[in-house]
């Protein structure tokens, strides 16, 4: 379950209301505060404004219960019966609160839902009574025999709880999709899509539920209706989230989603925001990290027009975010199929990307530079690429990328900087088979920089992948320009086997004291 990392005090403040409700429920034995139905609804919903808020409250309550169950298992293992019982009482209260809250804001519950709720409540009551009996004896043998029964009851509670949450989330996904599909109102459809997006942000499991309930099919129907054009960006953003799972990808293929995305990208009447979000979906479904893209056969049929539209979007991007989404899609496509690199070369994409890098308002983060250098690295396997690099002053750019450093210290940004350094070294190594590129690299003092990256772990953020790439690039340049290295550098970084040079460089800062 997706949780935002926050300060511990802030987390406590957010959980305080839930804990207070828990105590109230315990004292009142789950009885409503008000007898009159309208008053009760007004009281409980006073702090809740939408389905999205209600779902967030439900998910937070579910997370607390899940955490408590895990802690009970840990305390049970240590035979801390007093703690086990007090936590069991707390779980019992939270379960009652969660069910009451959900039944307050939900419009309808199925018979299966009511049965599961009853099973869970009964099992929680049994669990509480069981742990209370354990407190009434000090006999180790009796406690030992009861422990297996407590463990079994805990497992059953967790099982019922998991089934109930799965059913609740499935029902909420169905309700939202029904609203999107049946409502002709822009306002209602927009709210439903927004709630669906929030649900998808909770993690891969939620995305699987939405996909299984036909979420991808429903959203692509929206993207094929002109009356919902203003909702395309939001709809496409939700699709990108859902398509991170295999079920979403299969659904996309079944409804000719690739063709729809190609139509959107090539339709000049759409806004830049719509084109950018369509690019984000393309980037998601072609991600090299996914292992289930092999069935995207229809992508190859539409690849040329998609790549053409993405290059145009990179060229005309009005912001760094738009450029990042378009270039990320292109970078992934170059991994997806080698033919993409040839198409990019024909479209003068190299020139466009190199020009964009000189505009700090467009290529403004290490993440954007990571996408650009990924494309350059994958294109550099083509022989024709070398002349394009020379003409676009690309060697200078690659040299600058070898100096990429994180300014914030953020781990994600530092990782992006490492990738930029690694891929720029890889690109130099590949392109330096061309004497003209190698000569330009030597003139720009690439060799001293590569040596520094090899010898100084801090310069490469202690990255082994950067080290290997720099050693490879250095060896290629040393062949073309052997006079550019001192004898010690040659003897340590070029002459030995690559693995020996690697081990030498990784052990440079070890202390043997």
TrEMBL record:
It comes from Emberiza fucata. It comes from the Eukaryota. Residues 4-49 form the Protein inscuteable homologue LGN-binding domain. InterPro entries: ARM-like, ARM-type_fold, Armadillo, Insc_C, INSC_LBD, INSC_LBD_sf, Inscuteable. This is INSC protein. GO terms for molecular function: cytoskeletal anchor activity. The lineage of its organism: Eukaryota, Metazoa, Chordata, Craniata, Vertebrata. The gene is Insc. Residues 61-513 form the Protein inscuteable homologue C-terminal domain. GO terms for cellular component: apical cortex. GO terms for biological process: apical protein localization; asymmetric cell division; establishment of mitotic spindle orientation; regulation of asymmetric cell division. Transmembrane segments: none annotated.
